[in-house]
Design goal:
This is Cytochrome c. This protein is mostly loops. Helices cover 14% and strands 7% of the residues. Bound molecules: heme C (4 copies).
């Protein structure tokens, strides 16, 4: 008996129960054109589930003009949210060389800002097609489970790993950039937040196209006094400001995405 398979089956059951007896569905990676807007992306949930929104709405899976969700978990940042909110508590990433914890700049909630909104679908539990206060039909767009490559649930608590095995988020970027020493004596291995980078965006029509100069700070969630790193520091949820796949804000080739911030 394949141990991995067994583990996945167990989690499917656990997630199905907590999502209101919905069957866990493994969502396959979608094919789409980067930079062409949210409607043409996997974030148009109508493209992903069998029976989409009754009016064919796109934004509605995440936003609503009225009656937005009221939840303490997103009191800090709520862009008219319409999707059931993830209210779980997560243990942040930790390591001996990660400065987010040691310089005492970790936010009390690692999912502060847009990250908690992402984790309302990428948690492996909440159904992706849930919106406007209505539960989806059984089996339709219910959560995918797993912590494997190309699976939707990157921070699946059911596996016990949560966000501890994911790139750190939820810390003050400026504090880390000025204190990071890595394992050597060369000084900070992290670029200052005002560092510019240039990306040629693939967009068409009303979406961003052409070469754009941006600063690292543009990628940060600014809560008034701090530049906080979030899921949206690497991904553009609306499929606008990304040159290629995975909704990334920079290219994978030559690991340009990583070198946006790291001096390596
Ligand atoms: C899959 C979920 C999702 C969908 C669908 C979606 N958004 Fe968003 N939206 C977000 C998240 C998450 C944020 C938080 C900021 C961020 O991560 O960029 C956001 C932020 C925003 C903001 C405020 C910040 C900004 O970028 O200006 C606006 C305005 C917005 N969305 C409009 C829209 C519109 C209009 C649509 C439909 C055409 C749409 N969104 C579809 C998830 C979504
Ligand atoms: C430091 C940059 C970075 C941050 C921060 C980040 N991601 Fe990613 N993410 C990536 C890259 C790069 C990929 C592409 C896959 C790869 O290269 O391994 C990816 C892939 C994904 C995928 C595709 C499925 C998979 O796992 O392969 C999802 C979904 C995802 N990220 C969601 C998130 C969410 C949700 C957050 C916040 C909790 C987040 N990401 C934070 C860089 C990041
Ligand atoms: C309303 C639910 C929902 C929300 C909210 C949401 N996502 Fe997604 N996301 C999805 C679905 C569904 C897919 C497609 C999964 C699949 O088919 O594999 C997806 C796919 C992705 C992918 C993979 C894209 C690719 O190239 O395959 C990334 C990266 C991602 N989301 C990041 C994010 C980030 C970052 C946020 C928050 C800023 C976010 N998502 C918010 C539902 C959501
Ligand atoms: C938006 C900026 C940004 C991007 C993009 C980014 N990182 Fe990071 N990364 C950081 C910051 C800031 C830290 C915290 C550095 C520290 O404390 O030393 C970090 C931490 C890390 C760590 C953990 C270091 C430790 O000491 O434990 C690794 C490994 C890492 N990043 C690799 C990557 C890789 C690989 C990519 C590309 C897929 C990437 N990063 C993309 C900003 C970024």
């Amino acid at each position: 008996m394949n141990i991995m398979k067994n583990r996945i089956l167990t989690v499917v059951c656990a997630a199905a129960l907590s999502a209101g007896a919905l069957a866990g569905v493994a969502l396959a990676k979608q094919t789409y054109t980067p930079g062409t807007g949210v409607s043409n992306s996997p974030h148009n949930i109508n493209n992903v589930v069998t029976n989409g929104d009754e009016y064919g709405r796109v934004c509605a899976y995440c936003h609503t003009p009225h009656h937005a969700i009221v939840s303490g978990a997103i009191a800090e940042y709520n862009p008219l949210w319409s999707h059931q909110v993830n209210e779980e508590t997560y243990t942040p990433y930790a390591s001996r060389t990660f400065d987010g914890g040691s310089v005492d700049n970790m936010q009390s909630d690692p999912l502060v800002g847009p990250s908690r909104l992402c984790m309302s679908c990428h948690d492996g539990v909440i159904a992706v097609s849930q919106h406007y206060g209505t539960a989806p039909a059984a089996g339709n767009g219910s959560a995918a489970v797993g912590d494997n490559w190309n699976e939707i649930s990157v921070g699946d608590l059911a596996f016990g790993e949560g966000l501890t095995n994911d790139h750190p988020i939820g810390f003050d970027y400026d504090a880390v950039a000025s204190t990071d020493k890595g394992n050597g004596t060369l000084g900070s291995g992290i670029k200052a937040a005002n560092t510019q980078f240039s990306v040629t965006l693939a967009g068409t029509g009303v979406n961003y196209a052409g070469t754009h100069d941006r600063k690292i700070s543009d990628l940060m969630y600014n809560n008034g006094s701090k530049n906080i790193m979030t899921c949206a520091s690497c991904h553009d949820v609306h499929n606008n400001e990304n040159p290629e796949d995975y909704l990334l804000i920079n290219k994978q080739a030559g690991s340009q995405i990583c070198l946006t911030c790291h001096k390596k």
